[in-house]
Design brief:
Layout lengths: L5 E7 L18 H9 L1 E3 L2 E2 L5 H10 L3 H4 L15 H7 L3 E7 L15 E5 L9 E4 L2 E4 L4 H15 L6 E6 L37 H4 L5 H4 L2 H4 L13 H36 L6 E7 L4 E2 L5 E2 L5 H4 L3 E4 L8 E3 L3 E2 L3 H8 L4 H4 L9 H4 L10 E6 L12 E6 L2 E6 L17 E6 L17 H17 L22 H15 L1
Parallel strand pairs: 1-8, 1-9, 2-13, 3-14, 4-5, 4-8
Antiparallel strand pairs: 2-12, 6-7, 9-12, 10-11, 15-16, 16-17, 17-18
Helix pairs in contact: 5-9
Length: 503
């Protein structure tokens, strides 16, 4: 058996940290995810740098921001020329595997590479009897997606070369929309008495106009396709908005939490295998999600915006050989840092083997060491300006331990999936110590003028460091997008038409 560290990277899609009991969830219990935290570390300040599925996945693999890897939106694919940490580990003798959601494009050059074994869902994937792709082509696989992904993962572990280390990516479709549960969990939360978040009735009074215009409200934007039943006649109309919102929330959360429970069960299956096959001590198990998700927080669902419910990625890590059981971490970490960290864990220096990486290894933090010069802020940028489904504005910003500054620059910059419509630029500033729920925008408060100026300067420094161009007007340069991008506009229109037809 190899003495080098193995890595199992379990990632779900749209799983908010506040729907994991290890993070203090008020709405559900996740005993197997909690087991990772109890036997390892819970990281409390891990953030995505672009809260959309495909961009986050590209960033994790490459250790780069969206403007470097070319994957800015769900309508773009990762530039295949940008190397990944999987490429490096494969070349270093690791066995590599990838099962589940890929979502980085379906053109030939976008297919999974440097994996010894892989089988993935096309596009977003399906929950029941999903179509899957591997090197032999496409076929339907009977069963439930979350179980199938775990079955494939366990099969790989059984058949691997035990004399070589491995890295395995276990990527669940769940709990992504449309939240279809398996048979085992379909009766959970049937009483429809799920607690509403404290910010459920946020009136958005101090928000920017662009944010107040997003199409992500529970009351008005969750479709019949999502709820699996039409809104009752007596709850329709503006006069019934509050009652309709509460009715929709219960059904949305019931389905969401049901599919989360299946993930938790399957996490348990993997942990049990490792524990009973001598792989516990020298295998690092990571559980995370590609970004957060609004679970009725501020009256919203979905993600995209820079509020913490969307920005935060849960991250639980078990590695008994190194990580102290029951430990926690408050360091600010981003998905840009993952690649460098995984390489470091495997004994490789990212600066030497993955020079394109913009991240930094947090292995010393996992060991419990204090890193004096660790970054004290995260830089974020969302590119899908005024997309035709959610209408979230393009923006960038920074989050420190105490403050969050966001600039809605109001332009699409030619990004596929984004509108060319120009908005009036707007700022938001939140004092996270005084206002952790991010309800009161103080960007125009004279008392915060000095803080705002300091944060603007810090953001400019981070943009320069990460080689990202700030918005300076309609002629601002933007990244060169993939030649595949011209095909996505037809897909956008078809998707929107289907969504409207089922609303």
């Amino acid at each position: 058996m190899s003495d080098r560290t193995n890595i199992i990277f379990i990632m779900s899609d749209d799983h908010a940290a506040h729907a994991i009991s290890a993070y203090g969830s008020r709405v559900n219990r996740t005993p197997h995810m909690d087991r990772i935290a109890k036997e390892g570390m819970r990281l409390d300040r891990v953030y995505c740098t672009n809260s959309v599925c495909a961009p986050s996945r590209a960033t994790i693999l490459t250790g780069t921001y969206s403007h470097i890897n070319g994957c800015s939106s769900i309508w773009t694919e990762m530039d295949y020329r940008v190397p990944t940490f999987i490429d490096v580990l494969h070349d270093a003798g690791y066995q590599t595997a990838m099962f589940g959601k890929w979502h980085l494009g379906e053109s030939p050059q976008a297919a999974p590479r440097s994996f010894d074994a892989w089988k993935v869902f096309p596009g977003q994937g399906e929950y029941i009897d999903p179509e899957m792709i591997d090197e032999t082509g496409r076929r339907r696989v009977p069963g439930y997606a979350t179980d199938i992904v775990t079955d494939l993962s366990l099969e790989f572990l059984e058949q691997r070369d035990q004399d070589r280390p491995f890295v395995m990516m276990v990527h669940h479709k769940a709990p992504h929309r449309p939240w279809i549960p398996d048979t085992k969990h379909k009766d959970l939360y049937a009483d429809l008495d799920i607690p509403e978040p404290e910010t459920f009735f946020d009136d958005h009074a101090t928000r920017s106009k662009a944010v107040r215009g997003v199409h992500m409200t529970i009351a008005d934007d969750l479709a019949a396709e999502d709820l699996k039943e039409p809104v009752p006649e007596d709850l329709r109309g503006p006069e019934h908005r509050t009652e309709r919102m509460k009715w929709k929330y219960q059904r949305y959360m019931r389905d969401y939490l049901q599919v989360v429970q299946s993930i938790d069960d399957n996490v348990g299956r993997l942990l049990d295998y490792l524990d009973t096959h001598g792989l516990r001590e020298n295998t690092m198990v990571v559980y995370t999600s590609d970004q957060g998700f609004f679970l009725g927080d501020h009256g919203w669902f979905d993600k995209r915006l820079m509020f913490d419910e969307s920005l935060q990625m849960p991250m639980l890590i078990r590695w008994p050989a190194v990580i102290e059981a029951g430990s926690t971490c408050e360091a600010i970490i981003t998905n840009v840092d993952f690649a460098a960290t995984f390489l470091d864990i495997c004994g490789l220096d990212a600066s030497q083997v993955l020079p394109t990486s913009q991240g930094r290894s947090f292995l010393p933090i996992l060991r419990g060491e204090q890193v004096e010069d660790w970054p004290d802020a995260v830089y974020y940028r969302y590119w899908e300006h005024d997309d035709p489904i959610h209408h979230a504005p393009g923006h960038y910003g920074i989050r420190t331990a105490d403050y969050k500054l966001i600039y809605y620059y109001g332009a699409g910059l030619g990004v596929p999936g984004a509108s060319d419509k120009l908005y009036e630029p707007e700022w938001e500033l939140y004092d996270l110590a005084a206002d952790p729920a991010e309800l009161n925008n103080v960007a125009n408060d004279p008392a915060y003028a000095g803080i705002k100026a300091e944060l603007e300067e810090k953001m400019a420094q981070m943009q320069k460091y990460y080689q990202d161009e700030p918005y300076t007007g309609p002629d601002t340069p933007h990244p060169e997008w993939s030649p595949y991008d011209h095909e996505i506009f037809d897909l956008i229109q078809k998707y929107v038409a289907n969504l409207e037809a089922t609303s």
